[in-house]
Design a protein that fits this description.
It is a single chain. With 146 residues, the protein is mostly helical. 69% of the residues lie in helices and 0% in strands.
């Protein structure tokens, strides 16, 4: 079982490095690029659209082959989402995520990668994201007690 964990962690590390390199090469760690994409009334920057198109294209092709396997290489089963409904927590969470992304120009993956730039912006974003996550955990635990 320990070998499985080492292999799984190694694959996760390699995947994270590959993802981070992709973010860096495509300049998605530059918040001004992301904000330029979101600014449809100003000088619009379509770069993010091409990155998104590439990611969706690879996913559409790769998932057709991957999901034909009986199980992943380093696990006994696939862990796919089971909930098919769009509910209020999903919509509210997506809206809050989108607002935060639009204000800061970062989402979690690129903000971690952007730490290499030596700027305070991704650090502040990550602190705020962690604070928001902990606040949600605290509020949801209070609501569950009622």
């Amino acid at each position: 079982m320990k070998t499985l964990t080492v292999k799984t962690n190694l694959i996760a590390l390699i995947s994270g490095i590959l993802f981070g390199l992709g973010l860096g090469i495509s300049q998605m760690i530059d918040r001004n690029r992301v904000l330029g994409f979101l600014d449809i009334t100003g000088v619009w920057d379509p770069t993010l659209l091409f990155v998104l198109g590439g990611a969706v294209g690879v996913t559409l092709i790769a998932f057709r082959f991957v999901l034909r396997l009986s199980h992943p290489f380093f696990d006994n089963q696939f862990y796919l989402p089971t909930q098919k409904q769009i509910d209020a927590p999903l919509v509210v969470g997506a809206a809050i995520f989108g607002i935060g992304w639009g204000i800061s120009g970062y989402c979690p993956g690129p903000s971690l990668t952007a730490l290499v730039l030596g700027s305070w912006n991704p650090v502040l974003f990550l602190v705020a994201a962690i604070a928001g996550s902990l606040t949600y955990k605290w509020v949801s635990s209070l609501l569950q007690k009622k």
